[in-house]
Amino acid sequence: MVFAPLNVFKNVFLFVFFKVILNVSYWINTVCEATFTQYVNARIIIHFFNLSSVFYKMNYSIEKIAGIDCIFAPMQEGNSITIEIMCKAWSIYENQKNNGISHFLEHLFFKGGKKYPTPKAVAEAVDKFWGKFNAYTGDEYAGYYVKCAPEFAHNAIDVLGDMMMNATFPKEELEREKWVVIQELKMYEDNPMALVMQKWQERYFGSNSYGRPTIGTIENIQNFNQEMLFQHKADLYTKDNLIIVIAGKIQDKQTIQDQISSLFTSLPEKKRIEIPVFPDNHLPAEKSSFFDKKTEQNHLIITAPGFDGHSDMRYAANTLATILGGNMSSRLFQNIREKQGLCYYIKASHYSSQNHGEFVIRAGIDKDRFEFWIQKIKEELAAIATGNITEEELKNAIGYNEGQIQMGIESSDEMASFLWGQYLLYNQIESLESILQKYKSLTLEDIKNIAQTILKSDFLYTYHIQ
Known about the structure:
alpha+beta; five-stranded mixed β-sheet; 12 strands
């Protein structure tokens, strides 16, 4: 199972914090866990659900089945289908005492239900048709999916329905899984690229639901019990708080509809917990801080407040991030890595969540040249903050974004992520053509204004692990 750490990216790697960046994943994947990449790839699609091809026409429908919103996205030219259950059952809903329970619950769903009563039975039910079967928990959602050949769609729904509706959370399995999750937590703590995100999140958002790690603490994990799991499930796994996405080659839609209706009818109607208010005054008092981990290199994060997922300003901020550090031809990659050889990975991103956004720069640098590197990157930020951006850079960034999203929705699981990333969190799905037009309509003045707004030194917060 995948843990989605970036509470910031809120998506942002605490999806532990940890699945790093689609367009540069080829160089970051060599350092990070695959789960980190999967998480961030999903987040990139969600927060960047911006780009597209004008030639690509989306084909989907939203239907109410058994009181649940279901999205059908036929891709009949393909050879796979993805069934994904997405629930707004994330770590933001947790308190200090039960922090980590959303992620722990995700693990326990795999321990058996009524038809498939053991972890082995659950696994064999999907392995026998070579399905891709996983789950993940982040700051804004929890997800469960099976990707398989089209003729096995009914098998996939059967397994997902049983584990979701008939979960028993056996005590023996519960106690055993505590140690599994604790080892997962320790694995992330041994990964500085993941740990710096977690520590940064706690520092940047503070001691509240938005700043706590998705995976929780060892003490909390050890204290989880059956009653807490059933309670959390009943509170949030409800018809008004989850959606089901079916994307890919759909061979028998009516059978799928009937199956969903039969399996999920008894799901509770209304969620019983409301999302907490985002803290207005969460920014750290100190502009710079660090955590001493005795790493081989320093891992740095520079952050500025950005724009939430409801703001159209996010399109300009996303484009600025591409120009600054979104790909191999970006300012930071060329001037910091290629020309000066100061780091291996360096990346700029803008992340939008439902009620906040962050402009984030990440890099790993040699300890002996750390201060020198900080000065160099600040020079790059200062230059772009003064409006030093060209029309060619803007054109290239928009084109890059278009290509990224087009190639990012070719498969059934990618299309599912594209759709639920909008509908689950924002209750709407904007067409690719509309999103693309918002990028094409950006002017150089728009990008310069954003750069001058968010990249001023007064707005920058730094954190690193050393």
